[in-house]
Amino acid sequence: MKNPLEADIFRRISRTQQDLILIFIVAVIVFSLSIVFNLPEMILGFIGRHNALLIGDLLTLALVLVLSLAFFSYRRWQEARGEIQERKEADHALLSANRRLQLLNDITRHDIINSLTGLFLLIGRAEARAAGNPETLASIQKEKEIAEIIHRQIVFTRDYQEIGLRMPEWQNVEDIITKAWIGHKIGSVRIDVQIPGLEIFADLLLEKVFYNLIDNAMKYGGPAMTTIRFTQHRDGDSVVIACEDDGLGLSEEARKNLFRRGYGKHTGYGLFMIREVLAISGLTITEKSQPGRGARFEILVPKGLWRCTATGT
């Protein structure tokens, strides 16, 4: 399955081929009509009456015109083919560079995490020794908090570097959401997915988007939350995917800072990560909650990046 950028180039090649075929058909039709209606004699009579161009000059002009149109269409076709080849070479070079950077990041991150593991072990021993000294214990706990922050940031770099690393693909939204919530401990909360047949062209981290949306609802929804619902509706040529819950909702302060990196409980990267993953594929997310009615997020999927199967809406 070609991505939209490649599909656009192939559509241009297709149009060029159609131009060539059209020129050929027009030439055949003109030739056929000239035989059926004896157009050469009619043209000669017209030229004779008006003392205009000789028939040879007229035919030469027509031939030059047809050949010029054919040459122009052929050049367009060649240019489109060249663009495809250049894009393939650029994609290959970018992928190769990304792989080398990823390897370097993986090695560095692995070494840092190993060092942190040793640090946590030492902190644990220090806590045991300082059990009877509240002041020293408080200092050690602050050190532990700093180490945990470093660990979360390192884990975040692992997830963040994967954004845009692989080519986007068409993905079934309902299947992706199902995979996302299966990995969650949702207890008695019900996941209601009403998105039949919708597929979107997005980064392969799309599952993490819906995982984090569910995770965000579980963190902020409160004990009274019973349902997390996913729905879809049309907005002009675009499709909107909505995620809403019946929990406590969001405070005004939270709504202002939702997508800011580092804001929120635990890692503080969930909604920031969602926005970044969607942006790399040309999608956007907005918060559309109403006070006292739970939280609601809407993902806008532009025209060309969504499609529906036969069972879809």
How do the strands and helices of this protein lay out in sequence?
Elements: H1 4-36, H2 39-50, H3 55-129, H4 134-161, E1 169-172, H5 173-182, E2 190-194, E3 198-202, H6 206-220, E4 227-235, E5 238-245, H7 252-257, H8 270-280, E6 284-287, E7 296-301, E8 306-308
Parallel strand pairs: 2-4
Antiparallel strand pairs: 1-3, 3-8, 4-5, 5-7, 6-7
Proportion of β residues? 5-15%
Structural class: alpha+beta
End-to-end Cα distance, whole Å, is 22 Å
Form type: elongated
What is the tally of helical segments?
A: 8
Could you tell me the mean pLDDT? 78
The biggest beta sheet is recorded as:
5 strands, mixed
Q: Count every beta strand, where a strand is a DSSP E run of 2 or more residues.
A: 8
- Level of helix content? 55-70%
**Low-confidence segments:** none
Gyration radius over CA: 32 Å
